Description:
Shape: elongated
Oligomer: single chain
Helix content: 40-55%
Structural class: alpha+beta
Largest sheet: 4 strands, antiparallel
Strand order of the largest sheet: 1-2-3-4
Mean pLDDT: 87
Amino acid sequence: GGGKKAVLEAAQTFGENVASANADAIIKGSSLDKKSKEATVLNELLTKDGKSDDDIEFYKAVEKTIEFEIDEESYTYKKGTASVDMVFTIADYESVLKTEYTKIEDLTAAVKKADTKEIKFNAEFVKNDDKEWVVDNINKKFVKIYDYRNETIELALTSDMVKGFIDRNMSSFWLADDGKYKDTLFIEYNY
Length: 191
């Protein structure tokens, strides 16, 4: 169908796919070629492959906070392209990650309670060969919404974990004279 109503419906579907971080659905609802660079970037960003369980728990927690609004008043149509402003709200995960966590549950709980930030996106729609409205500007700016997917979660180790690690792996491991562990070095140690 043509017109504003159809575009707003497409925007609604697009918003839902973005919020559920569904790369396939986003790509299907866009003008991207599945083999395009942008589609590849999106797929790689949103895949679970090569991610740890902690990473995935963190991503899920952030994704649960994603909401969106469509500014219907902003709708414009010109020469075959319709556009509408969308505002995505997402947990301010960067502030959450400034704190160290030893348990993934504590981290995900903090994400849930975090302040949110807004990401504005002007979604442009064109009709594809099937006469369906699809998003035409899945670009670097859009992909920014998924920046949190570039985070790797490294939980802080508790002193018990450190001790177990030392017992298993090395006889002497940055033990300070008083038997306490020097955290500064330990944090940089990538095990």
